[in-house]
Amino acid sequence: MMDLRPVAYVLGLLVMALGLTMIAPMLVDIAEGRGHWPVFAESAILTVLSGGLVSLACRNGVREGLTLQQTFLLTTGVWVALPIFGAIPFLLGETEARVVDAIFEAMSGLTTTGSTVFTGLDELPKGILLWRALLQWLGGIGIIVVAMVFLPELRVGGMQIFRSEAFETMGKILPRATEISSSISTIYVSITLACALCYKFTGMNTFDATVHALTTVSTGGFSNYDASFGTFQGPAEWVASVFMILAALPFVRYVQMLNGGFTIFRDSQVHVFLSIIAVLVAVTAVVLISIFPHHPEQAFREATFNIVSIITGTGYASVDYMEWGAFLISIFFFIGLIGGCAGSTSCSIKIFRYQLLFASIATQMRRIYAPHGVFTPRFQGRPVDDDVLNSVMAFFVFFIVTLGLLAVALGLTGLDFTTSVSGAATAVANIGPGLGDTIGPAGNFSTLNDLAKWILTVGMLIGRLELFAVYVLFTISFWRA
What we know:
Elements: H1 5-21, H2 23-32, H3 37-58, H4 68-86, H5 88-92, H6 99-110, H7 126-154, H8 173-201, H9 206-217, H10 235-247, H11 251-258, H12 268-291, H13 296-311, H14 326-335, H15 351-369, E1 378-379, E2 382-383, H16 386-412, H17 417-428, H18 436-439, H19 450-464, H20 468-471, H21 476-480
Antiparallel strand pairs: 1-2
Helix pairs in contact: 1-3, 1-4, 2-3, 2-7, 4-6, 4-7, 6-7, 6-19, 7-8, 7-9, 8-9, 8-10, 10-13, 12-13, 15-16, 16-17, 16-19, 17-19
């Protein structure tokens, strides 16, 4: 039988750490003077005690390494346990959220999805607004570590191709994760501070600049206002676009750059990602100029901001792009299924999987007209093993199947076709806003029925952990191993 103590020990420590971060919004609430700070004091005490007791009870089972089973269980367990405790301030605070809404919001935060069920954000206590942003910021750095340490070893969705780049970790998961987290944290904090300062220079107040820096670098998309980023027009949109792109690039390259071993623009993922953005922005801007009375600078600014926001999975919206016509709406739907680079805070399918998919297709076509030739798909100049390609193909199939099943399930709850399909896509791809009047850029998820919210919550979890890390837990062979 699997020893659950090492998993529970690590989960307990992470829950404790989450509880300690609640001190920050508590202090902000004290400074604001609205009397909301006891909510975070109570939540922090409950969270720290719960995590501490679990860790103490299980510390005698700690080992240096984790088995494959334990690693799978820990990966999913983190994104189940933390949203539950992260939801406590929403349950106790002025949001007066019900359990389903609180967990939905916390899951959306920690998975950096950015979908929200809260309205009246402009009037909420600053502590709650900061807590939403902190959840996304913590979720962003958490998923980078998972993508660099755990997923390559778990061979999830082709991520094993990055095993050598994400460092050798098998058998030493915990100490190596700590080492990598330290390097990533320095870069992550530095980019966040730079983003906050740039927002400050564009005219944001200190609180707005801080919160939006946290949700920009995490590509999460939570804002302090119901109008999302539409509250800030002009230079702030350019700043956000730059930092969303930086956050969607592979962080392992930043680490290598600091060590003088790699230039980020040598990564083919980066080339493809930036090229796609450039083409999409140009097309969108031209359409906006031709259809609407847009000034060229406004057209390129709105096109750049909203294209980058959706393709990186951030989910900010500066305008209601549902009014831009069917052609651009279709573009926004499909680019959300692209995503950024592997090892970044962005979500969805990821650029490298499309590269491997098209490399495999090109190889098969060559074999058709030259059946005696020897052709091997290549990525970053290196040949790709069949197990990587098989894993990527399986990921594409499971992604589409998952999206379809979620869309059908949402439709059975009574939602219309557009809301069901775009809702499923935004959950599995962790994008944020969907399409339509209900969950589009001008709406939110508050009016959905409870069952739909639970379905979307599960969808966000599955999508953030690259599908297989969750699905494997439901196989009999996993528990028999």
